[in-house]
Amino acid sequence: SPESYIHGIAESQLRYIQQGIFSVTNPHPEIFLVARIEKVLQGNITHCAEPYIKNSDPVKTAQKVHRTAKQVCSRLGQYRMPFAWAARPIFKDTQGSLDLDGRFSPLYKQDSSKLSSEDILKLLSEYKKPEKTKLQIIPGQLNITVECVPVDLSNCITSSYVPLKP
Known about the structure:
Helices cover about 25% and strands about 15% of the residues. By secondary structure, it is α+β, with helices and mostly antiparallel strands.
């Protein structure tokens, strides 16, 4: 079938967006970028996260997780569940100095009871005090690139896929 277009942009280009531009008018060190990681629906989060957290043979574990994921994806591929989340501050100070270090916090297991944005906001208020945080960490890391962009950037769209006019 012919490809569909949204505001003149091919839908395939909008499906898996890997870049974003954000404008912040009041920079503050407590503005965070939060990444939520999902996985295919597979049952209890404790059971699903166990192979990643256990320190057993990584090769065997990877093969087992891969086999299980293939099997589950064939039946429930379109259904997702929360798996983990991570956060990082965007600014170093109130003057708007970007924190260019692209590393996120550790990946924290996301329990089903802590799904709402309000719950994550409560956890972020304790972010600066890691000794108080009793969240289970999933080994892994998430890195991004943060940079300033020129004001006259072309071919930009809003979150509603409406083209921005310079």
